Fold this protein.
Amino acid sequence: MDSSHRIRAILSFVQAADAGSFAAAARALGISSAAVSKNIANLEKALGARLMNRTTRSLKLTDEGGAFLRQARVALDALDAAVDTVAAQRGQGEGRVRISTSTSFGQGQLMPVLPGLLARHPGLAVEVDFDDRMVDLVRDGYDLALRGGSIRNSALVSRPVCRLNMVLVAAPDYLARHGVPATPAELGRHRLLARRFLDGHVAQWNFDAGDGSIVTVDPAASAVMTLSAPETLVQAALDGCGIAQVGLHLAWAPLRAGRLRTLLHRQHRPGNYELVIQYPHRALLATRVRLTLDYLLEALGRDAALHVPLEALAGFAA
């Protein structure tokens, strides 16, 4: 297999692995499904190993395929970097960039920095979809996604923005009326505000028991409100409705203003969450996407609310 055929075959393999089907890979590459299948078959023949098992409904990488995919990404990333180096010398990039984000991150973190992006790169146009569902970037045609939570391993490339810290908060007037819980066990006597995710499960609250074990509190057991949007939990806490577990970035401004207080922050163990920017791996990543990605990483890196050290919470405890 000569170099040109080898590159086409590797691109077909990576696109099929990312998209999950020959048809989707063919659309991304602008060739036929039959050509994708032939390219991958020739690559497997040249390597002397099966890279993926195909059925009429799915593709599944073999162990050899997974190992080859990891190395292929390294090579394609190097090619991307070489192309972007040359492309960056030709101008500032033009075209439309499609971004998927949740309503909360979109309004709170993305929208404030977009004017700066367009000012720096006037040839860009941005299309943003605010959707709390986990969209399929390849299938739905997105260039970038801003996502928060417990990020699962996937074929997507993830660029970390920050750790997402969670805090328990309540308004001073609520605490004046109901008292300040001194232990997790006392939360059962309070009015709690629960977060329900789109799949129906309610977020649990975890605490250090002091002996190395974890104590879990189910807020649904005594919840006076169960809400799906994280920003509404903050508002309900501000309105004195009860105690909520919310992202520190959402609560930071009210905490600094004295409108919320933190609770049990030394015992609270909310889990490991992060904010990332994800994109589907594509050879020759478009300059317009690269410029947008680099700007967002830079701008979000300056967002003070996203980078509050946990040590700072001691000054806002009830």
